[in-house]
Amino acid sequence: MLQRLPFLIAIALAAGPVLAEKADRLKPMVFTAEKQGRLDGVNQRTELFGNVIITKGSLVLHAEKVDVRETRDGYHQAYASGSSGQPVSFRQARDVPGEAIEGVADQLEYDTRTETVRFIGNATVRRTRGTTVADEVTGAVIVYDSRTEVFALEGGNASPNPNGRVRMVLMPRTQPDAPASAAASAPPATLPLQPSTTITPPRKPS
């Protein structure tokens, strides 16, 4: 019997200056939690429990438990997990006014050095325009690179889709029945998701 292998695909927003909020890179990381916390100064490790919230500029992460480790060169690696019925959530604004990247998963890994977010288990990531979902991807694992806005998707047993498949929903950029005058006055549509043949998911931060 053939072994079922995970399905891997990578997609990217079309190339251009429309990237994640670049100002976030210069903002401090702020941690809050409702329950206990533990700081290990020798090993540069912090553990927080109970409705943990991490912010860094427009980036907001919610989790039940977070383990944050600081590297020798001053970067941070955050490992977040949710609770039963309450997954980890992530949101970050894009440089396009009113647009953001939002995602949920059972677990999440965030690395400030590479500016990548790894959504693990029942993962869903959306590009939103205001309150409207513009694009959506789901799978067992989704790796989001905020520098290039490339998503790497992997299927498997932890996918929320039937048979462990990955799934992409790309909404139309214009309404086909819109009058010509309305289309002319509408703001230019943002570039759609496109296949990428050069990206591979980063490994778990060490």
Q: Your description of this structure?
A:
- This protein starts with 7 loop residues before the first strand and ends in an 11-residue tail after the last strand.
- The chain is globular, with a radius of gyration of 18 Å.
- The chain has a six-stranded antiparallel β-barrel with strand order 5-6-9-10-8-7.
- The chain is an all-beta fold and 206 residues long.
- The protein is 3% helix and 49% strand.
- Strand 7 and strand 8 (99-105) form a beta hairpin.
- The model is unreliable at 1-9, 13-18 and 194-200 (pLDDT under 50).
Give keywords.
206 residues; mainly beta; 14 strands; globular
What's the end-to-end separation, in Å?
35 Å
Bulk shape: globular
Strand order of the largest sheet: 5-6-9-10-8-7
By DSSP (H or I, 4+ residues per run), the number of helices equals 1
Succession of helices and strands: EEEEEEEEEEEEEHE
The SS-based structural class is mainly beta
Count of DSSP strands: 14
Q: Uncertain regions: pLDDT < 50 for 5+ in a row?
A: 1-9, 13-18, 194-200
Rg computed from alpha carbons, rounded to a whole number of angstroms: 18 Å
Query: What is the oligomeric state here?
Result: single chain
Look at the structure and give the mean pLDDT.
Answer: 78
In what range is the share of β-strand residues? over 45%
